[in-house]
Amino acid sequence: MRSIIDYRSDAVTLATFEMRQAMANAEVGDDFAGEDPTVKQLEAMSAQMFGKEAGLFVISATMANQIAIMTSTQPGDEVLVGEESHIFNMETGGLAALSGVQARPLRSSNGEFSLSDVQRAVRKGGLQSPITRVLCLENTYDLNLGLPLSQEYMSEISMLAHDHDVLVYLDGARIFNAATALKIEPEFLCRGIDVLQFSLCKGLSAPVGAILLGTKDFIAQARRVRQRIGGGVTKAGYMAAAGVVALQTMIDRIEEDHIHAKRLAFKLAEVDESLVNVEKTLTNIVQISLKNAGKDAVLLTAELEKQGIKIKTVDQTTCRLVTHWGITVSDVDKTSEAIKRILGR
Ligand SMILES: *Cc1c(COP(=O)(O)O)cnc(C)c1O
């Protein structure tokens, strides 16, 4: 019996029994020669699901992000990124180190950049300025909030970027959470996007991997870049086999994670309205604010840990809890009760 309730991330999810079986029985080959049937199957399934021409299996979402930018920029170029985005904050300065590009952070409101901010940020050329090459979106946005960005917004901002010859890249590590929350098909949601990536090992619970999607030409270039940085894996089919099962079995159940997150948010709001923003709990991430609770975030995290409940401290007054297929309704109820006791309510 599992005794720890782990909300630190949906990346803590373990492969399902069916994934392990698929890995054991995977048909594999030399992916460098384009001969791994399972990798090819996963790449084709993914491309079809998003209505893109081609896909590339990559070891991690971080690597997918970095390959995407390396493929679409030259050193000295500029890319527009969200101030709270993963690619800007959580990838050890990879944009500068690997692509030699300058990242220009944009402020967001409810996860959205304003069109006029983007318009103003795009460099029009000229001898002295860098050239704006890529607009980086993220959906769901903000790893501590998980805000789903609407299809209307994504398409409007993409059109603006395209008007200026700027490529639109989407870090869609949690795109299935966004599509589920918005109740639309991922293909429709990502229609205006040139290149995107989604993670297989967050809510989808596969052991490794992300898929990069784009045109045939872009993916052919990206494949070379992946090779350059040592991201090619000859018999990747063992890993891809779990990804295939993830796409077949784990997407429809993401709704459950959202219901659990909402339930947790409601229960915490019953304890104290100021603890959570129920309206902003739209996917699988619950953010707790302790500003008015008289306890700090490190203390709450430590007290919960003593009771076998792991959460993430974001800063002095903020914690993050992520629901996933390892979290049940009774876990949620147990957690809200524990927080109530710790806060002395
Ligand atoms: C988790 C995450 C990543 C990185 O995923 P890894 O597979 O751990 O490298 C990138 N972007 C976003 C938005 C994420 O949530």
UniProtKB/TrEMBL annotation:
Ranges where the Aromatic amino acid beta-eliminating lyase/threonine aldolase domain occurs: 6-289
GO molecular function: L-allo-threonine aldolase activity
Matches recorded under InterPro entries: ArAA_b-elim_lyase/Thr_aldolase (IPR001597), Low_specificity_L-TA-like (IPR023603), PyrdxlP-dep_Trfase (IPR015424), PyrdxlP-dep_Trfase_major (IPR015421), PyrdxlP-dep_Trfase_small (IPR015422)
A Pfam short name: Beta_elim_lyase
GO cellular component terms given for this protein: cytosol
Location of N6-(pyridoxal phosphate)lysine modifications: K202
GO BP terms in the entry: glycine biosynthetic process; L-threonine catabolic process
Co-factor(s): pyridoxal 5'-phosphate
Keyword list, A-Z: Lyase, Pyridoxal phosphate
Family statement: Belongs to the threonine aldolase family.
Protein known as: L-threonine aldolase
Naturally occurring in which organism (per UniProt): Desulfitobacterium chlororespirans DSM 11544
